[in-house]
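Reopening this ticket.

The earlier resolution said the output was attached, but the attachment link was broken on my side. Pasting everything inline this time so it's all in one place.
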Amino acid sequence: MAINRLCVFGGSLNPPHETHVEAATRASRRFDRTRVVICGIRPTKGSNNAVDPAHRANMARIAFGDIPEVELDLDDLERDEFLRTTDLDRLWKKRLGDGWEVWHMIGSDLIVGGASGRSEIQMSWKDGARVWNELNFVIVPREGYPFTEADLPPHREVLDGTGRSDASSDARLAFARGDTAPPGVPPRVAAYVVRFGLYSAAPGAKRFGRLTLPRNPNLLVIPAGENERARAIMNEVNPHGANDPDAVVAIGGDGHMLDVIGSVQPGIPIIGINAGHRGFLLNELTGEEFNAHVASGQPFDTHLLSKVEVEFRLPDGTWDPKKRYAFNDAWLERDSTQTAWIRVVAEGQNRHEIPCLACDTVLVSTPAGSTAYARAMGAPPQLIDTPVLLIAASAVADPVGWHHAMVPDDSTVTFRVLDPAKRPVRAVIDGIPYGPCIEMRVRRSRVESVELAFLPGSSLGAKIAALQFPS
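Inline output:
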């Protein structure tokens, strides 16, 4: 039987380097599959914990997203955990089964001293002796860490490369000193770091950025299909192209913006131009005004906004296997003439429950989505940096007088349908129906996000504040 081979490249990659990208690319030519695993919290690396996971995920997408043969694994980062190499090996052997070998890519710094049993793997790793003797390793030579044949573990291959070092720690220090383009950092990764001020001494999650486009930007312009005004604005915006865009320009209304948000890879800023009605997520300007703003070198204010991960259970009792994400909201709505009966549970720092909510619709909203359907249900709009999830319902029959609640954004909100045979409901995510459902589970994603750009003084936060003072 032919043996297939998976190469697992795990690490902090904080930030990713050109040497990381080169190593993954070289591995993809040698192995049947190559998977880059961005690790979560590591007790020995405080630098990982200091950078928002959404930023680390986006930098990895920027660095590795254009390599078609390389898979990006953000599960550790999403779950806020660190799977050690021995656990990764066990996990992937179980997933792949017979006919596959699992190989682990490591730097030569981890094997120096192996001949005398004093390598970092043998001395410090979990199950170090067994890992050294039994696992398969792909060794990437690193500058400053020469090794001999005797230092190599029993099951290994050496990946030819440049042998450069380009440590991520050096890049972090360079960014902290104000360097905008440290050696070895991919330009688009460096631009992202500078945009949000990552690795600076300033405290906070750094969810607000400053985007200045080049004078001749590469723009992916996406107009609303049947909107003549949107197409006219598109013809004014120049130049534009689809390859490696500096930004995406969405032209239409809020509904079109949600469609664009669902289709654009995180890490690329989205600039909206309103050609619809309210245009809450977009900017009020013409194509010519947009061109003038870019040509003058004026910046856009950007906001990195988290999505929520949505899972739902189908009527046959199984969970839908595909992970789905919502920017605005996710809800259950009655799918018959019967009022829906739904148990609502919010679990996080504390547990809260409504044993039976009798209503037409119940939803979970992000702060950004609190201006949409949730607001129509009577819930108050939330400022975008408020760390909450908003639960709201319409046509509530019981509990009498209940309309909405706010819970910390590290909560998991579960809607469980009571008597689904008599009182069926369907799942809807960002306005898209997904059919019958008996349970929905919603939590804030640590890695899925959207970067929206606004004209200075017209931020999403300012728009939300203005809603509370109607003219």
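Reporter confirms the inline version is readable. The chain has a mean pLDDT of 92. The first helix runs from residue 18 to 30.
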